[in-house]
Specification:
Elements lengths: L5 E4 L9 H14 L12 E6 L5 E4 L13 H9 L7 H11 L3 H4 L5 H11 L1 H11 L6 E3 L2 E3 L1 E6 L8 E5 L2 H13 L4 E5 L1
Parallel strand pairs: 2-8
Antiparallel strand pairs: 1-6, 2-3, 4-5, 6-7
Helix pairs in contact: 1-7, 5-6
Amino acid sequence: MDIFTRRRFLIGAISGLTTIMLDRFISHFANHGEPLIKNHRDPKHTLFISRDQEFQIGLDQHPFDYKFPNISLIEFLVKFYGESVPKSASDFNYFEMEYGYTERNLNGEVPIDLWYDVASRFGPCAMAHRYLSSLKIEAALSKNDQRFGGLNFYDGPTIGSDYLGVHAEDDVSVSLLQHRLSVLGHNVAIEMV
């Protein structure tokens, strides 16, 4: 786990972005107070970006509006805790001793506190981190000694934190992110929330 933040930039010579386009993104924000976004029809994914939460990004969900899947407690423990499906009485005894869950509990709903325990590593912010870091978009462009196009990737930013997420630096960075995704051929919509 990397305890420090890692900064990546969205733009540069390889991104197909010209200073004229950058000026257009800056001008649009200056005139309208929002990023210039041109979304695709029928996107494969949507990046939800929360301006109120330091431009935190969630993949296919609002960064803080979790929609947990409808799975049983045993399916949850197998998927997120690496447990095995119990097959014998001793297996069920293990779950009762280790977690305090009976066979009946294991076939029931997942307690909400367990969902929130794993949300920081598997929720929409973590999914956005994995998706965007897999694209390896790392170049910078500066204009008049100002740098544009930043994404900040966080992986356990403080001791004891297991937060995994990514934030855009500002509104112009959101426009540049959407442009860069289009250049890479990704059919991704961006929605400010």
